[in-house]
Amino acid sequence: ELGKYRHYMQKEIFEQPQALGNTLEMIAGGGGISPQLFGADAVGIFGATRRVLILACGTSYHAGLVARYWIESVAKISCTVEIASEYRYRDSVPDPETLVVVISQSGETADTLAALKFAKSLGMNKTLAICNVPESAIVRETALRFVTRAGPEIGVASTKAFTTQLAALALLTLALAKVNGRLSDEDEAMHLAHLRHLPVAVAKVLELEPEIEGWAQRFASKHHALFLGRGMHYPIALEGALKLKEISYIHAEAYPAGELKHGPLALVDKEMPVIAVAPADSLLEKLKSNLQEVKARGGELYVFADAGSEIPQSEGVHILHMPEHYGLLSPILHVVSLQLLSYHAALVKGTDVDKPRNLAKSVTVE
Ligand code: M6R
């Protein structure tokens, strides 16, 4: 079943162009975005949505954090994202007009299911599941649903489920914007063209594997790593750190780069590799000065830059240029390189990549 691959995780990383193509099949033709992709009642529910609340755990929570940037900037709807196991145990202010979005690969995560039921018990019945398993418990509980078509994910570390969740969330953003009159025809056509290009764009990122493997070999002997990102790439830094922790057991933390000088800079020395997600966006100049702060303290930097970004290579600063610049969908491309990085770090360490210690694929207990 593994074919030419050594592990399910590797196979699933490389299946991403196909998984994205399948998930986005309904927009493959020339038409526009249809809210009905989310269910027959989607137009009514989306049209009345004034707030979005996203609930999820782990990697699915990171997908929600990226979606917050998209939903607020494109659909102009206020959005909060909460870890399901925290939401269900706190007193919050319920709002029946809020669209509650639960994200789960398995659809069986106990905390996410319980958070959804809790939200419903508070009178929030406008619910949407983004899930990879059509007949799962979570999907059976929601008014609307979008089933990602990643195919079965076997590796405990979630990879293709994450990128397909992001594709679904990009579609949700466009549907919310369209129903609420915030999407011009030109913008709709542009976003859809970018989405249709995704499988090809991801395939090009996968070609960077040999260079990324070289990086992983350099830092796999370290005990700690710091991941930096800004804006919608901060959740990608979080996801990169989670992947590295899960499968290579290297302690990793992620920070929005602007927070460095508020504490974590104290940790930086030559034993602390710093991995930066540095796309060519409006925050690049700020990020560059954050990277200077790291370099001045002897930290070894590994920078994922976009095509055409000018970040000078120098002693202790390694730069890898992504094949293209991707705009709004950039988090989907950048995460692929971080998946490869953690996979290769784990190979060097010889850990059980597909079944890391202490973890289960589906967390069906609290
Ligand atoms: O099936 P779910 O998406 O609900 O699972 C949520 C988390 O348990 C999951 O994403 C976990 O964090 C992964 N092992 C991350 O790689």
From TrEMBL:
What would be an example GO MF term here?
A: carbohydrate derivative binding
State the coiled-coil residue ranges: none
Arranged from A to Z, the UniProt key words for this protein are: Aminotransferase, Cytoplasm, Glutamine amidotransferase, Repeat, Transferase
Got a GO cellular component term for this one?
cytosol
Major site of localization recorded for this protein: cytoplasm
The catalytic residues are: K361
Domain SIS: where?
42-182, 215-356
Annotated localization: Cytoplasm
E.C. number, please?
Answer: 2.6.1.16
Q: What's an example Gene Ontology biological process for this entry?
A: amino sugar biosynthetic process
Partners and quaternary state?
Homodimer.
Outline what the protein does.
Answer: Catalyzes the first step in hexosamine metabolism, converting fructose-6P into glucosamine-6P using glutamine as a nitrogen source.
Put simply, this protein is called Glutamine--fructose-6-phosphate aminotransferase [isomerizing]
Q: Which span of the entire protein is present here?
A: 247 to 612 of 612
